[in-house]
Amino acid sequence: MVGQFIKVQGDRFTLDGKPVTLRGWALGSWMNFEHFMMGMPGTNSMIIEAFERVYGTRHAEEFVENLQKSMVSKEDIHYMKSLGANTVRIPFGYHYFMDDLNPGVFLEHGFEILDRVVRMCAEEGMYVVLDLHSVPGSQNTDWHSDNITGQPLFWRYKCFQDQIIWLWRELASRYAANPWVIGYDVLNEPGYGLSPDQINSFYARAGEAIRSVDKNHILFLEGIDFGRDFSPLADMDDPLVAYTVHFYPFVLEEDVLSPEMDNSHRKEVFAKIFDRQLGEVSRFGKPIWCGESGYEILQGMEEFYGTLLLDNIGMYEERGISWNLWTYKDAGRMGIVVPRNDSPWMKLRSEIAKMWSHEREQKISMEVTRAIGDRYYKPLSDSLAYDLDFRIRSVLHRIAVEQVLIPTLESIPWESMKEYPNSFRFEDCVKRKAVTDKISQFINKEGER
């Protein structure tokens, strides 16, 4: 099937000269494992290293490969298409493409994994955005950038940035002629406190590297502070640029997650937060893509969270903004497709949950951070406590891996564990129809206009 490149015209995406709205889901936790989504403590690197320690490198590699194949199959892409989606956001960590011990040497197997899914999407007539989700040293302080120290060292060392410039040049050279790739989400959620020079010089270098081999694809640029603040960004002199906001309103207003809140008031809160984010990015006059938005979908409350997502999507569409939801499939946290409760993976998740949870870890880390100041120095300011909290959290990651994840894995023989990825096969998963039916009906209604 032959596709056409999606382009930029003013503040809209266009296909064959006509405006097009990008709608879809992300493949979160596929090529960059996230602890709460998979039900395992630690960052992506820590989780994989735990499997290597318990089962050996060869078995760990086999496990990861089988998990990735089970999480994303032709049936999964077809299902997203059947819901009305036209776009898949593909997050990945740099580890799959580059060896830290051999700078400049690319890992062909990583490209093969990515190529497989890009090809499946093209066969279904689905466009993709390639999303660099973690980089050497980590671009922000949190777990989703595979941060094992709680410090965004990517911005401190040019050698880390050089590696990513090489990676984007390589990726762009491989996909330059592929029209099913919309473009490149250059860096997921850059951290807070970055100067204009830090963020703009990196984007300029990445853009120059990509354009040296590819003049067909859109560069998607995110704001700092986890995709929320665009005030430091300069206007890039490139005709194929779009800007990507991330919308998680409960981070700022936790009350929106209460079913008791009047829904009209909730929608007003949504609009206030979202329009504040748009204030700095709309000045560029370029297309805006809400590249991430979603909620933890608690079991038994699917109807409520479907309403929240639908309200968010309606808000984007009213403003002419494309969107992508987080996420398509995971171990029952934010996915619309999840393993059955009686599957081996979900039983493992339940066992680990008796000893560890992301929420408990966050609570403990802030308590410890505050206690250090209170007991041994002076009470910490809110800004210092916020910054140091991520470093303490990285310590808790390590403890949980050593005391929870590894002992749990050691209790499961390899002959059993090697079957666990099958829990994520499309045919063995549950579809959260209370959520997807609402979204699918909305998309189809919009398509009829």
> Would you tell me which CATH topology applies?
TIM Barrel
- Structural class estimated from helices and strands: alpha/beta
Strand content: 5-15%
Largest sheet, spatial ordering of strands: 4-5-6-7-8-9-10-11
Molecular shape: globular
Find the CATH superfamily.
Glycosidases
Indicate the mean pLDDT. 96
Provide an overview of this structure.
The structure is a single chain. This protein has an eight-stranded parallel barrel with strand order 4-5-6-7-8-9-10-11. Strands 1-2-3 form a three-stranded antiparallel sheet, with no helix packed on it. The protein has helices at 35-38, 44-55, 57-71, 74-82, 108-123, 158-175, 196-211, 224-227, 263-281, 302-318, 344-353, 358-376, 382-410, 414-417, 433-447, and strands at residues 6-9, 12-15, 18-20, 23-26, 87-93, 127-134, 181-185, 218-222, 241-247, 288-293, 322-325, 337-339, 429-431. It has a single domain, classed as TIM Barrel. The chain is built from 15 helices and 13 strands. Helices cover 46% and strands 14% of the residues. It is an alpha/beta fold and 449 residues long.
Helix-strand blueprint:
Elements: E1 6-9, E2 12-15, E3 18-20, E4 23-26, H1 35-38, H2 44-55, H3 57-71, H4 74-82, E5 87-93, H5 108-123, E6 127-134, H6 158-175, E7 181-185, H7 196-211, E8 218-222, H8 224-227, E9 241-247, H9 263-281, E10 288-293, H10 302-318, E11 322-325, E12 337-339, H11 344-353, H12 358-376, H13 382-410, H14 414-417, E13 429-431, H15 433-447
Helix pairs in contact: 2-3, 2-13, 6-7, 10-15, 12-13
